[in-house]
Amino acid sequence: MKEIKVGLLGFGTIGTGVVKLLQNNGELLAERLGCRLRLVRIADLDISSDRGVRVDAGILTSDAMSILDDPEIDVVIELIGGYEPARTFVLRAIENGKQVVTANKALLALHGREIFSAAAEKGVEVLFEAAVGGGIPIITSLKENLCGNRFRSVFGILNGTCNYILSRMTHEGEEFATVLAEAQQAGYAEADPTFDIEGVDTAHKLALLVGLCFGTNIDFAAIHSEGISSLTSQDIRFADQFGYRIKLLAIGKRHDDGTIEARVHPTMIPKHYPLADVDGAYNAVRVVGDFVGPVMQYGLGAGMDATASAVVGDLMALARNLVRGQGARTHGLGCHPGQLRELQVRPMADVVTQYYLRFTTVDRPGVLAAISGILGQHQISIASMVQPERHEAEAVPIVIMTHEARERDVQAALQQIDQLDIVREKSHLIRIENQL
């Protein structure tokens, strides 16, 4: 039986999962492929720690180049993460004519144009199913099963840490800082969770989804990104009162004028929408195509086993091609390289949506009139409002839900309102999506 020889860069959590899967299901994979996947070398800076899986010490090395430059190795799996040396290693593998599998969303979000172009020129593929949504097969779906559609939008809950925190805040009424600390202790959040809670990780993944859905190389710097650290249990309660849940949502939209939206921020979505029920560490992606309509995929967005499943799925796809002597079938972003378009990302200031606005003010007559007057001056109309009963000499919240308004108008209004002597805290906004 033919063998496909594989080299693995990175023997951390996901790398360990890949080794475990190849060992446990090796015979099953061979039956399905008609060839064997043989892991011939593993490179990592630490080759002495016990990972809980048994491997021949002879295949372990701290020299990545011994994999990248070995003419016998057919496929390189990159699981070291980060920008460098991952970029250098992936480009070296491509230069040497090797197929590549990676889970590195940060690398592809910033350097995807260079990497995919190099792969196309060399006639090899770079597959990255594990980079978005863990075990959810959204990348393959967009490149293969749904590729006959023009996509109107893509929405995603793409970070398990944030979704876990927001789920706890929603169902238990805890504050953000408390839940984050508990999540770190339980291993659901990193010691330094900045990339997760500030939306950077989600933005990396959105860059890839937008590229696949709309056939474009997106400039990562053009993606507007906000995190969840400013959310309070008070916001969660008010959202529930209005019939919404708050999720850290990745949003991609294409407009008739050819511009696209690409933004990540806390978002209110109606409680009856399926995305609102995605709880805990689970992820979900919802796309809308012109023929297929809405399609939603749901599953574990991270973790050793789910991510290893996606990595090995890519490995098997490449093995099928190699067994038949075929080269690259699809470009990294699912579109012929010569047909990728440079689509303009709408500045956040030009985005039009609905808003939840929370003001903390003194409790006296005329406050609401002053706030609504400024909103009106900026063409922002009020859809509904909650103002608690008056309490003498206490600061109270006023919550307003708007009709559709332009971001720059809302920001200008809030800046003006925050200068009023009746306002006790910086005003707070959350964007609303009612039409997913």
Automatic annotation (TrEMBL):
Stored PROSITE patterns: ACT, HOMOSER_DHGENASE
GO molecular function, one term: homoserine dehydrogenase activity
Pathway annotation: Amino-acid biosynthesis; L-threonine biosynthesis; L-threonine from L-aspartate: step 3/5; Amino-acid biosynthesis; L-methionine biosynthesis via de novo pathway; L-homoserine from L-aspartate: step 3/3
Known catalytic reactions: L-homoserine + NADP(+) = L-aspartate 4-semialdehyde + NADPH + H(+)
Pfam families in the cross-refs: ACT, Homoserine_dh, NAD_binding_3
SUPFAM superfamilies membership: ACT-like (SSF55021), Glyceraldehyde-3-phosphate dehydrogenase-like, C-terminal domain (SSF55347), NAD(P)-binding Rossmann-fold domains (SSF51735)
Domain ACT: 356-431
Residues holding L-homoserine: 190
Annotated active site: 205
Keywords, in A-Z order: Amino-acid biosynthesis, Methionine biosynthesis, NADP, Oxidoreductase, Threonine biosynthesis
Record-listed E.C. numbers: 1.1.1.3
Binding site for NADP(+): 9-16
Annotated binding of NADPH, by residue: 105
Enzyme class: oxidoreductase
A Gene Ontology biological process term: methionine biosynthetic process
Entry's family note: Belongs to the homoserine dehydrogenase family.
Protein name: Homoserine dehydrogenase
Organism: Geothermobacter ehrlichii
